[in-house]
Structures are given as structure tokens and as C-alpha cells.
Amino acid sequence: MTLMLRPDDWQALYQASNGLGNVLSFDPTTTPRFLFMFLGSFGLAGASLAVLGAYGKHEEETSDFLRTWGARLAIIFSLVQAAIGVWVYQVQPPVVQNALFENQLYAIGIYVWAMTAVLSILTAGSVIVGGRAKAKLFSAIAVLCSILTTISAVLVRDGIRDLTLAARGFDVWDRTVVSN
Fold first, then answer.
1. Is the pLDDT of residue 100 over 90?
2. pTM value > 0.70
3. pLDDT confidence bin for 127, thresholds 50/70/90
4. How far apart (Å, rounded) are the C-alpha atoms in residues 96 and 9?
5. Which are the contacts of 62, defined by CB distance < 8 A and separation ≥ 6?
6. What is the sign, positive or negative, of the torsion defined by CA atoms of 83, 147, 149, 141?
7. Which of 22, 35, 109, 117 is 20 to 30 Å from the Cα of 14, by its Cα?
């Protein structure tokens, strides 16, 4: 992904490696992008554990453990992902930061991501305090919100890719394709 965003570096990287592989130079966006998706996945996994605890056919003690610890994981890692999401935005070049909010689709993606992340956290909290009676409803909503958060994050990631390449004079949607 990092090389895809830096087509202007391809020739120099190829020459530096003598054609035998890529020597990846440091890109300040690599670490936050990786951590955003990697650590965010634990939030969705936590919400999924809460669903297993609410809907599964386990002993009562096991169900309670899965439900409460799954919801806690969902809350913790959703908060971590939100903080890293701000970091991802901050390390983008200013032209990309501005363009994300100028493009209506990507701006909506950012707002949907923020809204569903907050809803995911709130519903996961409701799984913990609502007890067994409300666990089925709230855990299902938490998973749905987590999935929508992931979908909107993917949309924004697509925008970051397109806008980064456009800032370097490369429009991914304006390519001539010749099929066989």
C-alpha cells in the first residue's frame, strides 16, 4: 500500500535494489495506517464475543464472561482506534487533509465512521450495564455498528489513496484499459 501511494519513488527504489526487490523508504503514514486497521479489528472481535455470549448456548457463567469481556474489548479497542484514526488524519499531507472534507463522499465517510464508532462504544457499554435481558439486542447493534465503522473506514481509506495519488498527478480513475 505504501508503494502504491508513492509512484514517484518507484524508479529510485528499483535502481537502489538492483532490480532484485524493493527497498522501502520510511513513510510517516505507514505505522498509523497499520495500527488503525490492526488494533481496530480487536474491537470488532470483542463485539463478536459479546454476541457469542448473548446468543450462544453456553453455561450462564461462560456467557456472562464472554458478554462482559467482549464488550469491554469492544469499548477499549474502539477508543484506541478512534485515537489512531485522528493520528492517521494528522500524518496526511495538508492537501489530502483538505481534500477529504472537500469531497462530499469522503467527508460523509468520516462522519459515518465517527458516528458508528461512538454508537459501537455506547452499545457495547449497554451490553455490560444492561445485563442478560438486553444483551442480545445491544450486542447485535454493537456488531452492526462495528461493521459499519469498518465499511466507512475503508471508504475513507480509498479517498486517502485517490487524493494522495491525485496530489502527485496520478488519477486512478483516468487510466486507459485495454482488455485482451
1. yes
2. yes
3. confident
4. 18
5. 53, 56
6. negative
7. 35
- Chain-wide mean pLDDT for the chain? 86
Q: Which residue has the cell 457463567?
A: 61
Report whether 142 contacts 74 (CB < 8 A).
yes
| Cβ neighbours of 85 (radius 10 Å) | 21
Q: How far apart are CA 113 and CA 152, in angstroms?
A: 5
How far is residue 93's CA from residue 97's CA, in Å, rounded to a whole number? 6
Task: Return phi, psi of residue 22, to 5°.
Answer: -105, 135
d(CA 106, CA 100): 6
User: Which cell numbers in the block locate residue 174?
Assistant: 483516468
Instruction: Give Cβ neighbours of residue 125 (< 8 Å, ≥ 6 apart).
Output: 71, 75
Q: Which residues contact 61 (CB under 8 A, 6 or more apart)?
A: none
Q: How many residues does the chain have?
A: 180
Q: Which residues contact 173 (CB under 8 A, 6 or more apart)?
A: 162
Residue 82 to residues 39, 94, 152, Cα–Cα distance (Å): 10, 20, 13
Res 74 pLDDT > 80: yes
Q: Side chain identity at 66, as an amino acid letter?
A: L
